[in-house]
Specification:
Blueprint: H1 13-34, E1 76-85, E2 89-90, E3 93-94, E4 100-109, E5 112-121, E6 131-144, E7 147-158, E8 172-183, E9 186-197, E10 200-214, E11 220-230, H2 232-238, E12 245-254, E13 263-274, H3 277-282, E14 287-298
Antiparallel strand pairs: 1-4, 1-14, 2-3, 4-5, 5-6, 6-7, 7-8, 8-9, 9-10, 10-11, 11-12, 12-13, 13-14
């Protein structure tokens, strides 16, 4: 996963609306404003009953998001997860040309946990048949009533130096912070990603809403919408030297199915769209659609 605390740059409302209008067009802007407040796909959670509050981060295939494990009766919990995606996408940046396999393992004791995540290249591209990234995440999360606080430190280790690969670079370190509030089946959240090392001093701030609904036959629906703003350093590191911009809109839809105790199967579809015209010009693929299937086992 790619990766300071200071006050976030203010984005005037008029400039924000203008940016959305230029990137989406008049009709697209009206559609965006008419959408119900839904966030980024959040890491899925274990099987939930009808009265379970939707806590935890969004469903997006993003190794930086903290695994939101179901609250166990015991003092510890663990999760094994295997994700197959048509592409590896992170915050609007495409890191593979084709399909990838992303296995991970999480162990949580009380409110402290650690996740080991990796990216394995399946497509016909550099590093095919190899792991080209391993991420180590140490996190803490705490629920305070309907509020949820999460913080993590993420070390990203890159295992290749092939200049033709989309996913390479110096090892990096970043912090991730989230505050969320459950409102019945809806969750409002905001995230802050801060780059500490390679690149350093970068900030990506997002906010969004997710919605969860239980369905028959042990299915449920999870959908989310997220909007993100990147500061000048973030955009220079990952796109171009274009200053602070309204970066990103991401929508995702998933239908987790839990036929057996501890097991979940999660088909998902995600859509990512860079908003600012300067970012779209700097990216070879400013709009990305990708899907996947995840297999999760909660111990």
């Amino acid at each position: 996963m790619k990766g300071r605390f200071r006050l976030l740059p203010r984005l005037p409302l008029r400039a924000l609306v203008s940016t959305l209008r230029r990137s989406l067009g008049r009709g697209g802007l009206l559609l965006f404003l008419a959408l119900p407040p839904l966030p980024l796909p959040a890491q899925e959670r274990g099987p939930a009953s009808a009265d379970t509050q939707p806590t935890g981060p969004p469903l997006l295939p993003d190794p930086g998001f903290i695994e939101d494990l179901p609250k166990p009766a015991k003092k510890w919990s663990a999760r094994l997860r295997s994700d197959f995606y048509s592409k590896y996408v992170w915050n609007g940046v495409l890191y593979s040309e084709g399909p990838v396999w992303q296995p991970s393992a999480t162990l949580e004791i009380y409110d402290v946990g650690m996740t080991v995540w990796a990216n394995f290249v399946l497509g016909d591209e550099p590093n095919r048949g190899e792991f080209n990234e391993v991420d180590l995440t140490l996190y803490y999360q705490r629920d305070l009533g309907k509020w949820s606080l999460q913080a993590s430190l993420i070390s990203c280790l890159y295992l290749n130096d092939d200049p033709a690969s989309r996913n390479r670079g110096p090892n990096s370190l970043q912090g991730y912070f989230q505050v969320s509030r459950a409102l019945g089946p809806v969750k409002l959240f905001t995230d802050l990603s801060v780059g500490f090392l390679e690149p350093s001093g970068t900030i990506l701030w997002d906010f969004g809403v997710s919605y969860r609904r239980q369905l028959p036959l042990k299915f449920r629906m999870e959908t989310s919408l997220l909007f993100a703003v990147g500061d000048a350093r973030f955009n220079k590191a990952y796109f171009a030297d274009v200053g602070t911009q309204a970066n990103l809109l991401v929508y995702s839809l998933a239908f987790p199915w839990a036929p057996l105790k501890g097991f979940s199967f999660i088909p998902s579809l995600s859509f990512s769209n860079l908003l600012a015209p300067s970012l779209r010009r700097a990216s070879p693929e400013p709009t990305v659609l990708w899907g996947g299937l995840s297999v999760v086992y909660d111990i």
